[in-house]
Amino acid sequence: MMKKMKNNLVLQGRVLMSILVLALMASCETGEDAEPEQEDPIASFQFEVSTDNFLEVTFSNFSKNATSYAWDFGDGNTSEEESPVHTFETVGTYEVTLTASNEAGVSATKTNTVAISDPDAELTKLAGLESKTWILQREGVALGIGPAAGDTQWWSFGGVTPLGDRPCILDDEYTFKRDGSFELNSNGTLFTDGTGNGGWNDSNIDLCGDEASVDWTSAGGIDMSAYQNGGAYTYTFADGTLKLMGDGVYVGLANKTNAGDIGTQSAPQSELTYSIVKLVDNDDVDSLQIALQVNGEAVFWTFNLVHYDDESKKPAIPAEGPKALFDFSYTDGDQTVTFTNSSRNATSYTWDFGDGNTSTDENPVHTYSADGVYSVTLTATDGTTESVITKAIELNVTPVTDFVIDHESAVTWDVFGGSVVEIVANPDASGLNTSANVLKLTHGDQTWAGIVTQLDGPLDFTGKTKMKVKLWAPATGTLKFKLEGVGGEPNQEIDLTVDKANEWVELTWDLSTDINGNPVASNAYSRVVLFPGWDTTTADVYYIDDITME
């Protein structure tokens, strides 16, 4: 019995040992082959904005325990790259989210706020991120001149002169590039002023045309071809000032510079400085208004430019409307005048010959009943809009050789700009002027207010070198003195400085040099125009007397 129990215990011990061995073996096997438990992902990232492009951001991924990544940049764009580079479309604040995942499908997210700001927002308004192209606006006033930046009260293209009259100005494109270069694309056309308006010659007076047809030599013999399309230009932009550089650079009108009109004696400008009046970045149409100051005085050319984000919204260039033009001829001693009509874009015409007679012929022939000076007006129309031009005809008149206006005898002055005149007793019969009677002028409410008189014949300057006028002014300033031509002859004018107030002064115009650098022509001017108090609008009183030529 005892032996049997002993055997059972031995057997049970062996079984237990076997179970322990098997358990140990199973435990060892499990330790060698089982997969380790995965750690959860940790999402982490940093970012850096490019110094070359403020919209470009580099994202650096520092996530752990992840095998795949999903980025949401907060602007509608995504990426699955590990460390992407993303370019935002515009400035703003974006919530950027990174989702980091492992193979078990466990994910973690990290969100950072990315603020995109423009370090030079004003330059971006002007030149965009790479470049930006502007045109003169095709609705409203495109450009003009006035006494202050942004003021075009003296004359405007799109106001006084219809946009359709000079379409070649409106097809020019001005591109500012972020790298500081500037492109002027004239599209092969140019508007050329005559010398009367500061142009370099009279080959193409006040005319739009192809650059191939332009006379590029000035009346002074200077090469003006730098104004042709294709120049190399640069610009600077800072502190509200825009400077354009390069031979022949311009905006709008080639012959307008900081030193005044280019004229016949100067080469094309190599630099222009504009003040920024307005620079606005709108949703559809951006606006740029710049002003060119002339000679540091209260004279400014203002240019209104626009940029369209959507080119399809850019207006077409207005169609050219009627333009009244004519010339005339007659034989000395005869009173019959032949009129040659060269108007453009017109279907009907009305003539006023200045003697009470009219005509609707295209090219009329008219016989006057007497010699004299007549103002002839042609109105050309296309049925919708009209254009008017007036020229003076001096028919068999005797040139004026001894010119004196002293207000001791009758003289007719016409007024404009709101001026009022009358002949009165000299209020200060002392000093330079002791005349009994003088002309009293009360200035109108326009800066260009003044007076004009039509002479009996053209001024003959033979043996004469000067014109003089006596003026009593309430303040120092400027008197603009102007001679208007016969039959379209370019006008002559000069600004004379009034350096004394409340006393008589005598102002002198040297006739030895006209706007073309030549002596003022004889028998070419029969209207005398005066603008006392030029560029003022107050109702000040001026006295004028003794207008002579010597």
Automatic annotation (TrEMBL):
Domain PKD: 63-123, 341-402
InterPro entries for this protein: Ig-like_fold, PKD/Chitinase_dom, PKD_dom, PKD_dom_sf
Domain of life: Bacteria
SMART domains membership: PKD
Keyword DNA damage among UniProt keywords: no
PROSITE patterns membership: PKD, PROKAR_LIPOPROTEIN
Pfam family, any one: PKD_4
Range of residues in the leader sequence: 1-23
Entry keyword set: Signal
Protein name: PKD domain-containing protein
Source species of the chain: Marinoscillum furvescens DSM 4134
